[in-house]
Structures are given as C-alpha cells and as structure tokens.
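Researcher: Structure prediction, please.
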Amino acid sequence: MSKTKTKVKEEIVEVNQELSTPAPEFVFDLTKMDIPYYSIKCSQSKYEAGEDGDVVHDKTYVVAKAETPTDISFLKFRQGWREKAPFGEERETVWTQDEAEELAARSPYCRNDKVSELEEFALLWFAIEMPDDGDFQAFPHPIGDSMYCLGVMDVKNLGFKNTYKRLYTHWGLNQGANLGAKKWSLITRHHSGTKSDYWSPEIHISKGESSKEIQELAMKFNS
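Model: Predicted structure follows.
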C-alpha cells in the first residue's frame, strides 16, 4: 500500500511542474489587430443604417450621429500621399515626404511632377466609449470599466485640415505628452461644394481626459 501512495504523489508533482511553466511573453503588434475602417454616410452610400452624416461601421452600426458632438480619443495618426487616379483605378500610396516627391516625379497623374498634385490624407486610429443607450455590437471591446469601439478614419481635403492638422498641432505643442490623454469632440458637418454636397469630420479639444486604460493603449499604439 505504501508503494501505491508514493507513486500517486510523484505523478501529482509532475503535473504541477507542467502547469507552472511560464507562458511566452506577449508582444503587442498593432498590425495583428482587427481594427475596421469607419465611414461617414452620404447620399451615395448604398446601405440602410443611419442617416446622412452619421459615422458608420460595417454598413450597420452607427457610433456618432450627424452634427452631434461625440467624445472621442485618438490613439495614433499617420500621414500619407496617394495618386489622384480615376475612380476604380489602382493608385499608389506612400508615407514619407521623400517618397511623395519620388511618386510625383514618376506618376502619370502628376503632369508637373509636384507633390501638390498628389492627394494628401491621414489615417486616424480612435476609440469611442459606448453611451448609456449604446449597442454592445457597435461597441464590442471591454477596456477598463467601459465598452468601446476601435476604428480607423481616412481623412482628406477639408476633413484632413479639420482633424489631422488640429491633432498634429496639439501634439506638436505638447511633445512628449500621451496622444490619447485628452478627449476630443468629433462632429460631422454638411458642406456645399462646387460639384456636389458632402459631409466632413472635424474635431475640437475637450476638457475631459481619457481613461487610464485608453491612455495606456495609446502608448502601446505608438511604441
């Protein structure tokens, strides 16, 4: 009987040793995250969700209403340039000033070989906290004590000026500060253009601050 008990104890020790083996260290990689693009609905949009001017994901979920201020935190931004190719044609995109000058020199869409003939744009990674009446499917990510949606917004023209330029100016005046520390107010506005009407986003800095968890996430995005 004593031999049987000893054997059982030895097997238990072996199992415990296996369970205590350290797991590989987690390395944050933004490129592996599933962060969708969000769009502003307009009269040409071919989906039912929302109204013109609403910020929509997956043609289904509205996370910000037209002309209504919505709290938003920014996690990362990136400026780029791309060819002004006809709709449906492939266009090359670059991410540095030097690359933009090289692209302008060889692109068939730049007649004068100038960077100004390229389309300047920016990608903005953001987080919006779920409101009290929000939909969990629209805000699926638990971060800290709240639910959020995470997304990317592609801005150009007036939207580029009224979002990216303002965000970059704030960051430039506060270098070293956490990009995600401050809350901003996002609003979409209707404009009448020379050829057609359109909706464009703009942001204004808010008095509030993002949660500790969102600030930590912004640091990861920019590490």
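Model: Helices lie at 2-19, 97-106, 157-173, 212-221.
Researcher: Thanks, that helps.
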